[in-house]
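dumping this here before i forget
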Amino acid sequence: MDFRVRNKINRILSYGSFFKFFNIGKSLVSSSQDYKAGEVDEFHKKNALQFDAQSCIEFGAGRSLGQNLFLSNVLERQYLYDIDNLLIMKMVNAYACQFTEVFEKGKEKVKKVEDLLKVGIHYYAPFDVRNDKTTKDIDFFISTSTLEHIPEKDIKPLLLHIKGMLREGGRLSLHIDYSDHFSHSDPAIGRNNFLQFSDQEWSYYNTKVCYQNRLRHMHYKRIFVDCGFKIIFEEAKVYDVAPMTINWSLMTGNETDLATTGRWLLEK
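structure:
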C-alpha cells in the first residue's frame, strides 16, 4: 500500500474511539497460525541462557505474547507492561498451546491475563512501567522493535527506570528496527525513506498508530552510554540506500546511519 494512503488511514485511526475500534477489529481478523520463532527470538533466548537469567521485564509486549510464551521455557518469571492492552486472546491461546505444557493443545485456556501466571507471565496493561516502584532485582530486560516508537526525550528516563528495576550486573537484550515502517507495506519506497523529511514534514506522517522517532544507531549508543550501561555487544545490520535527498540533521556522520536494524546486549 502506498505510504501516503497508509498515513491517511493512520491519521483517522489515531483518534481515540477509532484507535480502540482498530484494535478490536484486528482481534477479529488476526490469524492464530503457529508462531515461527525467528532470529530475534533466538537472540534473546541465547542471551538469557548465557546469563542464566530467571526473571525478565519488557514493555511493549504487543498483541500475541508469542515471543514471551516462547521464552517461558527459559525464564521463570516475566513482567510485561503495555500502555494499552493490545492482547488478542485468540493468538495468545494459540501460542500458549504451542509453547507450553500447562495449556492443553486445541483448547482455549487463557481466558484472562491472570491465567498466564501459570507459565510465569505477569501482564500489566494499561500500565506505564515507570509507575512500578516495587519490582526490583530483575535479571534481564528484553525489547523487540519497541524503542523506535518512543520519543527521544522519553527514552533515557525510561531506561533509567528500567535500570533501577534490574539487579547489579543485570542485562538488556535489545532489537531495534531503524527502518521506515511504511516501507514494510509499500515496496515502492526504500527502508530509509523517512530520512528525507524535515521534522515539520514528518510530523504529518507520524501518528499514534505508528509513531517513529527516526533515531540512528549512534544516537542509541549515546543514550545507552549516558544511562551508564556497559555495552557487551552491538551490531548494526541490514543496510539500505539513502533517499535521494537527506535531512542531515537526522544523521550522525557514522556509516551505521543507513543501517535498518540494531542488536544490543547491555549490562548494568
